[in-house]
UniProtKB/TrEMBL annotation:
Transmembrane residue ranges: 6-28, 40-57, 63-87, 94-118, 130-155, 162-188
Keyword Transport on entry: yes
The protein's name: Cobalt transporter CbiM
Source species of the chain: Desulfobacter hydrogenophilus
Encoding gene per record: cbiM
PANTHER family: METAL TRANSPORT PROTEIN HI_1621-RELATED
GO biological process entries: transition metal ion transport
Keywords, sorted A to Z: Cell membrane, Membrane, Transmembrane, Transmembrane helix, Transport
Amino acid sequence: MHISDGVLSAPILGAGMALAAAGTAVGLKKLKEDKIPQAAILSAAFFVASLIHVPIGPSSVHLILNGILGLMLGWTAFPSILIALLLQGVLFQFGGITTLGVNTVIMATPAVACYYLFAGVVHKPGAISYIASFACGFLSVFFSSLLVGTALMFTQESFFEVAWAVVIAHLPVMFIEGLVTIFCVGFLKKVQPELLPKWSAAQHQAALDSRTKMVEKQV
């Protein structure tokens, strides 16, 4: 999903830098002090997951986790992903420095989109939570692969076939990311549901009361 240096045209690189800067500014503005540790942990998870990759032409196939990252961070996904990509480029020459803005937009924009699409339903009980979680993971990778293809095609029309290859190659990753997101959301609902988005104060208090009762029974 990373695009390497020397592939994209200057206008695409410039547009990517501008959009990434705008998204990062919004994300930093919305980042509250108590959410910094959570953002750091998710950024580290993204960093590790996307290091294991299989090269495909000017791009690569790997786990991304931008769906669950966007679900939990919203706009803060932009600075979190930007930092992870910067470290990957500097430490491992993975991706690129000139394409840092474009790669950030490719992975962070779908993350924010999935937040707005699914944040209101993943915490709900029943099958709707699992469906929304799978769709969040699946679509985050699908949207990212479409953005990769778009960036390549706007650079050079001859990249059309490569763009389609990137989308098709990521189909297995889309399903895997969907299943991983189901697992992550299900785990959080059991151990710390307040980390999920749109978790109301009433639900938070109910969860605390439930935990208190469990502790009292054990004592």
